[in-house]
Model the fold of this input.
Amino acid sequence: MNSQTVLVTGGAGYIGSHACVELLQAGFNVVVVDNLCNSKSEALARVQQITGKTLQFYQADIRDPLALANIFEQEAIDTVIHFAGLKAVGESCQQPLRYYENNVYGSMVLIEAMQQANVKQLVFSSSATVYGEPPSVQYVEHFPLSPINPYGRTKAMIEDMLRDVSAADQLVKPENPWKIALLRYFNPIGAHASGLIGEDPNGIPNNLMPYVSQVAIGKLAQLSVFGDDYPTPDGTGIRDYIHVVDLVKGHIKAITALQSDKFAAGGCQAYNLGAGKGYSVLDMVKAFERVTGQTINYKIAPRRAGDLAEFFADPSLALQELDWQVEKTLDDMVADTWAWQTKNPQGYQ
Ligand code: NAD
Ligand code: UDP
Done:
């Protein structure tokens, strides 16, 4: 157990709320800042219900420097996990400036507030989208970054900013350097095993698993499988799905690593968080049917613009340096998604 305090930006969101549970259960004090633009405070009530512990919640925007300064003044923060951001690829193509302003500018304000408060340990939510279309479908951290949409570019820009800030400080303040982990998520799915917290998308889901579970529960009529003519074994797209609880455990491992000898001289390091193994859309549909006993009504539809045929992680660096790897199975991911969906057919409402 420990008495460190972690500030979780975006802590009321899908991944952030699961991170709060794991942090509280590991003995951290948790402070959340979230403007609730894509979440509900009920998620935080459920976090406290699951853990039997309390957290401190500030409803504020990370683009508000005064609000952040106030949080750093009120709370003795040791580390920040930065989840707050907008995440819909399609929306980012329609409203790019909103994405740059929220994600990039918001991160700048946060980094500045951290510098001012002399809090220099950060775990950042990056994404496999930063890679774009690299030379191999199994992504390795050293691959060049060339994201193909505005959302991905916001993540790559924030990564660049953090590498620059870290490098600058290593030169001028080697005794007090930044320690930063950039965690590149593959496809997070699933929910906490209690079924009390989970993904609660606004409107019609964009992502596969929330869509499938809403078809299963009868909220949506039919899944469109986007393309069956990709160069993959069954023709449908392949992704590296990772259970959200495994994913957030990687953040706690990252905090431990930032405090170890490896980061004694500071630094900014990217890690893939994925299973290292891909499943096709039809694999996911079949697994859902097998585990839940439901039938998923689906049709083959045209490819979705901007989708890649296949990618998955090389997660070996996270195993080597963070001592992290996935533990949950595909069946766990499906069963936990379904438990959340059936217990909360209208999400948090
Ligand atoms: P989410 O939308 O559920 O959570 C993000 C949270 O941030 C929300 O609660 C939202 O209200 C809050 N927020 C957004 N802008 C804010 C601002 N300016 N100030 C304060 N709060 C703000 O999304 P998620 O799925 O939990 O994703 C968390 C992070 O992980 C995001 O940065 C996302 O880009 C990244 N990520 C997600 C996925 C995924 O598939 N879910 C994949 C890769 C990376
Ligand atoms: N997908 C699909 N139908 C949907 C949503 C997604 O066939 O309604 C496919 C999509 O083309 C991709 C995979 O499912 O091959 C995962 O898509 P998702 O949007 O969940 O993740 P991402 O595209 O960000 O990897």
Notes: Residues 10, 12-16, 34-39, 61-63, 83-87, 102, 106, 125, 127, 185, 188 surround nicotinamide-adenine-dinucleotide (ligand 1) (CB under 6 Å). The chain has a mean pLDDT of 96. The two ends are 34 Å apart (CA to CA). Residues 5-189+240-274 form a domain with the Rossmann fold fold (CATH 3.40.50.720).
